Amino acid sequence: MNGAQMDGAFNTYWQQPTPSQQHLDSIRQALDATLNPRISNDVRQQALQHLEQLKAQPDAPHYGFTLADDWKQNDAVRYYGLQLLEYAVRYKWSEYGEAQIEQLRTWIKCLAGSLREREDPVFLRNKIAQLWVEVAKRCWGEEWMDMDAQLVSLWEKPMSEKGTANKVFVLYVLETLSEDIINNEDAVAGLRMEVLGASLNEIIIPQGLYEEHAKTRGDRREVRCGETGWLARVCGFFSDCVKQARLSGQPELVQSMSLCAVKALNGLRPTMAWISLKATVEVSCVDCLFLPYHTNDVELQTAATETLYALLGRPYNTHWHEAWSSLMQQALHPDRVAMFRHAFDRTASRPGEDDAKYILQKKMSELLSVLADAVSQHTDLAAGNKLELPAFFDLLLYVLQSKSLVVSIPVLHSWSKMMAVEEGSIIDIVYQALGTLVQTCSERLLRYEALPSETEDEVIQFLDEDFDTVPERHAFLGNYRRYCVSIIQAIGRSRPLEALQHVLEQMRNMLQNGPYTGGRGFNTERYSKNSLSVLQFDAQFNVVSSALRGFSQWCLDTAALGHDDPIFMKAEGDKVSAETALQEWSYSIINFHVDDPEVAAMVLQLLVLILRTIKPAPTFVLHVVQHLLTMRLYDNPAHTAFSDAVKAFEGLRVLELQKLAMVFSNELLEVYQELEPRIDVLVQKHKDDPRLVWGYKGFLFMIIHRATGIDHQMRMSRLQQMLTPVYEAWQDEGLNSSVGSLQAFCAALGLGNIAEFYKAYRFDQIQDWSVHQLDEAGQARQNEVKEKNDQLPLRMTKSMLAATTEKLEADSEEFETACALWSNVIPLVLPNLLQMLRHAQAYHNMANWSQLPDELQAVIRRTLQDRFWQSGISSESKEEFYARISGSKASYEGFASVVRGTMRNIREQGYHIIYLMTKFDERFYGLPELAEPLAEALFADAEALSANHLHPIINLTTGLVQRCPPHHRARFLPPLLTRLFTKLDGKISSEWETIGAASARDAREDEELGDEMRMESVLRQLTYSMVSFVPFLLEFDRQQPTSQGSNGVQAPAKPTLSDLVLSDPTVLEPLILFCTHALRMRDTRCCVTICKVFRSIVPLFVSSNAPAPQVREFICTEVLKACITSINEPYFADMQKDLAALIAQILLLYSPLTNTPRDVLLSLPDMSASKVDKALSKMGKAQSERQQRALVLELLEGVRGVSIYEAGKIARETPKNKGKSGLQQQYMEVEQRPAIENGEEAGLEGVAGLFGDA
Fold first, then answer.
1. Cβ(1244)–Cβ(904) under 8 Å?
2. 3-class SS at 869?
3. Which of 84, 539, 1033, 1241 has minimal CB crowding within 10 Å?
4. What is the pLDDT of residues 673-682, one digit of tens each?
């Protein structure tokens, strides 16, 4: 044994064990077996089992202390001894009496007192500190009153005697206490939160604040030792360490002191998140934390910067304004700003050159962002010329221009907020920075993700260093550009004339000199929409668009001025000047010829945006419209990328013309006689593309519909004439007969004998469909399917409905006209449309192909498998994927693509038509007997569709719910909602089971693994869409504007949607069943959302009125079991807080009403009735939700798989992730739906984006 152990290491209750050499040898051998890679797995498992069994033996703590305190043992044996003690503390504590607990405390203190700096490895010393904290969490402040005195005693041991071991030990204890008691969701600490929180605060705060605190703490017993307090004690120690590291000439001492200083900062950092700001002012924390900037130690500076961020980045509270202001002014002192500038210069490095310096730059940028936000939100900080703001703002600009966008973005975000500040002195400084801001933001609007990674650009190289996944990178760049756009927009709003003049001149120069025409190097053969020249123009286009939006806001600002305001006349003059300049610029660029389709499209969009912004005279409008109609690009089908871009340009031209028809219908009506023949020419030119044909017809329709200077009867006559093809198409006898059955439907689409076609062309015998080409007859069959798809009346109906309803205001004259036009058409369209949707789904149901031989069923199944590119998962780039798809159009895969594309096209256009019909309110929802056939069409075979095809159904159902008038809800919505939850619950649950089975299999080929990753990613998106639909239903009415009653009081519509959902068993049952299954789906975001849903509805079922008792019993059994099962799995470790809160709520609210929750708990292994009853009793008396959660976690301690904080300690491979803080992760959040690109037909719109115009 060690001579350093404390007296009383063994008392009369537990005798000192005298383990035999044989016993010790068996432990060593077992430990060796677990660590030796050459030992067989069976032997290793036996050894582990032996070691685990030892922990549960009554004498385990004897052996634990004996082994841990014996310096003769090797480190593994001593560490195992500590594990034995840890097991006793964590799992046996409640079984011990006072004497045993006192003995455990004595052993832990003894181990702490015998630490050796050089001989004891860090992991052993840290484990002893963790044991100290585990004991403290269980008895400090009640049984253990002298803990602080013992820590002070350890701390004050001379370094000449103990080295730094005791200091580092105490710092680690303080750090862990602060983390577990205050910052983390620690279950044990949560049970004694009030005592532990008060005790920790008392020993940390400095003397002055403690004296104030002592007056109000009541009769609570003293836990503090000495006058100083740990905050002042640690800060003083830190200052001494930095001073010695700076001044000492001994390298070994410098290294030791620097390490101690870092450890001190680690101890301080978690305390900074909660300590009173007055305490930090009293101790001069900011002065102390800036000391490392006097050194060249990058690691020390990084730790200091993180600690400063923890302190200064805390949420502002008016109660602490004086202390907060003092801290901020200290940090913004001119000398400190200069230190930052010097440190930032000194840590400059090239990509991949020095990770430590690069991490420090990121941390400093975050801290500067906090200081900048403080200045912008609390301009009183700069009062009295205490700060040199110009130097600080120069530093912000300097950091903004860093080649690393990750370093730059926190400051960029702060600049975007700074633009809204109205305090004079700050406006003046910001004005000086406008030129640099515009230049930097304009350059950074480049779509870097579209550039090849081998590009010789430092920005790209830093991005490669910072991001491992494409979705993360895309999301980050999207956020970066958003801040740039907001800054340019703000500049356009504050200085419209200068901003517009500058950015428009830059664009004119690009059009005049850029390689966008054949004469200046444009080549259709080598065309790429992601060439650097196109991306640069795209960036400038976004700059000009942002400046125009800013100008538009400025116009609204000036319009609000009174005519007697002295600024009004100047503003009016400036407005006229700006509008004149915009018109002149537009006239000038109309004369520029452009061959590049992408650039031409952006010019077109910009001209339309200018028209919509300035609302000019009719002559200018008509001139621009004439230019839009006559802009001509010459297609070259031999060059696929260029040809596709030309087609995209033509589609955009139609959309932009429709935007003008919405705003300038009266002006366009004046020249309608000239427009109509020109549109007819374009219709004839593009007659093979129904999208363009009906887009142009919709343009004319919108003019007649929206213009005011036209007689009502004449308007109705013209519009009805335009809609005649739609009326006639849906009444066609051939269409009626073609939707009578799936067989007839397939025949009408040219797919009648598709199985025979597959057999004749040996689809079942060919492995790679993409390289096997169709013969002439096969291509003819493919074209027949395309043509018959185009002949369906879906495109014309959707286009004319969209033209009718776009931005249509209810109760307007245009709305009444639209209702008159369509009210008789909707009942004609719906029966056949619903049958089409039914068959387009049924085509995917393999039960409808069961008569075919197995090999042809396999061909059908393969035909229906989508090809899609997914950001971050697909191994090829998006361009390569589309090139491969485009190159296989005449192949067997191309034929399969046409078949599945036809069915998808019918479904998605049908969904869009139904959604557009909802805009007619009563004319749609008032139709009798619509709900059931609509539900049948949408959901009968929904489970046969792949996951990526189910999003549109959820989106359509969302639209149907949103627009349903309250008085129709009870009749219309239940059939839809019942089918939605039933079908998608089954589909999603089965897909998760498939994913689980695939994960359990052995390693797969890369291609198979990639398919599984794509499948899982799509499934996660679908699950989240469906999970998000639940709170949408339950919270819908609360988020809607409420109607005003006769008494002037606003009341929500009755019945509310949540009332309907929660009271109708046909909806409630499948909804709760889906939510219960979602608790077991391995997607943290979805599970957290569902926990919140359950917590919102659990209180609603405490009554005795039906269906509350039945629902309550279901929640008490199935939901409670699902929560307990999930809390038992390591995957859900990060969710234990949410799951425990839900379990606590169920137990608290339902246990008084039913014994079911108690019975479920008693069914768990090793769960006694007394333990459950004790926990339920404590839970009822708990003062906070955290205590309730802690009691649940304590109760389920033996059931849980891995605690949150144990799970966090499991070593994981961390890819590059260099110094990513929480703030940086915020800028890198992946969009909720990572981009999935269907490769079948690029021109088809996905329904996911169709409902934004509601």
1. yes
2. strand
3. 1241
4. 999 999 999 9
